[in-house]
Amino acid sequence: MEPKIIDFEQGWDYIETGITALKRHSESLPVPKFTLEQYCDLYTAVYKMCVQKSPYDFSSQLYQKCCETMEEYMNSTVLPALNEKLGDEYMLLRELVERWSNYKVLVRALSHIFFYLQRFFIVRESLPSIETVGMGYFRDLVYNKLQSKVREAVLALVDKEREGEDIDRKVTKRVLEFYIEIGMERYEQDFESFMLKDTASYYSRKASSWIQEDDSINDYIFKSEQCLQKEKERVSHYLHFSSEPKLVKVVEHELFVVHENQILEKTHAEKQIGLGPLAKIFKQHVEDTTINAKEQVLIRKVIELHEVYMVTECFQSHTLFHKDLKRAVAGSDALLATFCDRIILKKWGSEELSEEDIEKVVMFLAYISDEKDIFAEFYRKKLALRLLLNRGVSDDHERSILTKLKQQNRGQFTFKMERMINDLTLSRENQNSFKEYVAKPGIGLTVTVLTSGIWPSYKTFGINLPNEMVKCVEVFKEFYETKTKGRKLTWIHSLGTCHVNGKFDQKSIELIVSTHQAVVLLLFNTKDKLSYNDIQTQLNVGHEDLVWLLYSLSCGKYKILIKEPATETVSRTDVFEFNSKFTARMCRVKIPLPHVNDKKKVIEDVDKDRRYAIDATIVRIMKGKKALGLQQLVSECVQQLNQMFKPDIKTIKMRIEDLITRDYLERDRENPNMFRYLA
Amino acid sequence: MHKLNRTNRDKVQQFVAITGASEKNALQTLKATDWQLEAAFDVFYSQPQPRSNADMRRLEELYNRYKDKYSDMILADGISVLCSDLQVEPQDIVTLVLSWHMNAATACEFSKEEFVGGLQALGVDSIKKLQEKLSFMRSELKDEQKFHEIYNFSFGWAKEKGQKSLALDTAIGMWQLLFAEREWPLLNHWCDFLQDRHNKAISKDTWEQLLEFARTVEPALSNYDAEGAWPYLIDEFVEYLYDKSVVEK
């Protein structure tokens, strides 16, 4: 038998009656209890209306009606009820959370009744579920209209609590939960961002008044800490946990960072120590002082900070503060070396720097103890340049500075540097006897003999020297062989300097150039014009190096050679001509070679040196012990090396493996954690 | 024979069948090793075999069959003929075991001494007999101790002459071949890791320690000791596994 067709009007009337009862029920108005049977009947009604054959399938109409019902409920009941309470902030919040929780119950009930719609019609048509639609109405029709009122009400409560009043935390918590329920972004955008701004201005007022009250610094710190503590509690009472870091940051900023200078001044004056929070301020202070400082100024600033806060003992060299200073100079060993260089050369702008500053640097070196060898390498480079380019610093002066460095560090630290100064003294003596040996004017050759391995390694490339120079080199070789036995001379022309007389149209000018540049210039004695290829075949120099030389002579400040075409780069097709029109105000001109950045090379060199040092240490230890477990070997190794640098365990392991490959060590057959020395 | 109990009699027969030794020799060897078959094989194969002129001549003939035309060695061509005579693929792991028996210095070549000495040690003097040995050689891979030896042997065998370490591609190929015999669940990760992060040759120490690692450390790394003396490459591999969340820390 065909079931009786229910028409829409009739069916909806029945359902609507049910819904009205549900509404009253959800608002806890006195109604007869809503029984399970009633639920089932309503569900059945909906079910029947949805499964009737078309045109009696009323799914779509039911969905629409259901939505309309919720919308109408918002406009006719919830919104007016809330509007009534607009006068009283607290009552408004209470009404809001109350209405919201009732409404959630109602929506849930509706979605039960229309469950059949939910399962088939809504899924099939990919419509938003009844709950989504319901929540959306509340947000759009109620919350959006009252948004600013609600926020102000909550913020007013928070402010009251900050001033010490008791507030209804339960309601506050429920309001904030409501924010989160209608979307985390509502919480963050509509509430949290305003709350943070509010907090900032609150504490900004507090901080300036406290500072002015001229309390002792300990009181200030104490009060600030208390505030921070309270804000954290506030989060745990009713805010979302994600707000805590943001809130703490705002408060710290207002209380500490903004006033860091005053606070540190006071601390300095009172010599009081309240370590925890102060360290934070100090860190910020170091960062602020150094962040915008240019490289060289940075070192100066950090040393000043060190001087002011460490040496004066007001922080009693507490490790908390060490870390911050150390971080500020991380990776600036090169700068520190440059700083020394400038002090020694007395070339620090207009500022006067004295030996005392050097002492400060030496003290400060203690702070970069992990990386001392990098500093040493940079210092060595700078020292080499000072010595070789004869910068007018006396050997004694250099020696006295080295003595200072040596006091703070081990002899190994300055070993090479001292040998370098010795080399130079020896060379000067040699030079005198060389002059006697040649005993005739005409050869103006000064040779400085450096011990390889002690000096930084210099890039050197082969070049065909002109005959004049070859002769000089040979004479010196003969001379040197009379003085020493079995030593090999390698000529580093890149460090050489030549004085070349240029006969220009207007006047003769003495050009001070590097040996390499001189070799290029001498080619133009026989010919006025030479192509790049001619020069390259005559000198037999690599492309990169030749470009570098020609660039310095034709594209720099002084154009001794004219390049065709007159571009800013040198290429293989260029032609060069002697610039006879060249002139200068002075009769002696130094033509600089463009600088090659060597920071990377220094780091590489240090790495290499470290590898050798680790290898040597491992072999030394193993030679003594014959067999040793990994842990002992590593710890002995670290112990022996940490005066110079902190070797990391991974590197030591890699070195051990390398030594195994090179047959210095072997892994024990039975115990793989054990290594043996192979004689 | 009549004095022996049944199990021991079986063992003697088995021994004779496998090694081709005389019954008397088998009896002596087995008695000396307390009737442990495996140990007896070890003893038997490590003893210098009595050389008879007859099998020496046959071995020479065999050698000449595979010898390179221009040098006094068996080279790649000869080996591929040998493989097809034995009806095995050249990539078959059994060729590695054979090379191990011959104590071959380098892959893809046998010197006369290695070839003849190896066959003598195996106690065979014809292709047919060698072929019959193949299944025994395969079974040797299942033996923990022998596998260890073959594994360590294969490093020197597979690397280029004159090099100290093993080219990465070759190493990965060898690992895939060897670990096909004994499963190691981290093998593919290991190979990926090497190609991704390392891309350099493998040292002997790393090679040898990897088997140790695969044997002793659980695939979940539960008993991995970060303080241990594992080669740094293996330490890095462990970090890689954590990074990629292959293994939960």
TrEMBL record, chain A:
Cullin family profile domain: residues covered: 331-554
Keyword Cell wall biogenesis/degradation: no
Entry keyword annotation includes NAD: no
Keywords: Ubl conjugation
Alphabetized Pfam families for the sequence: Cullin, Cullin_AB, Cullin_Nedd8
InterPro entries named among the record's database cross-references: Cullin, Cullin-like_AB, Cullin_CS, Cullin_homology, Cullin_homology_sf, Cullin_N, Cullin_neddylation_domain, Cullin_repeat-like_dom_sf
Recorded coiled-coil stretches: none
Superkingdom, natural source: Eukaryota
Family: Belongs to the cullin family.
Annotated PANTHER family: CULLIN
Protein name: Cullin family profile domain-containing protein
UniProtKB/TrEMBL annotation, chain B:
InterPro entries found in the cross-reference section: DCN-prot, DCN1-like_PONY, PONY_dom, UBA-like_sf
Boundaries of every DCUN1 domain copy: 54-242
Gene3D superfamilies from the UniProt entry: Cullin, PONY binding domain, DNA helicase RuvA subunit, C-terminal domain, EF-hand
PROSITE patterns: DCUN1
Domain of life: Eukaryota
Sorted UniProt keywords: Ubl conjugation pathway
Cited function: Neddylation of cullins play an essential role in the regulation of SCF-type complexes activity.
Name listed for the protein in its UniProt record: Defective in cullin neddylation protein
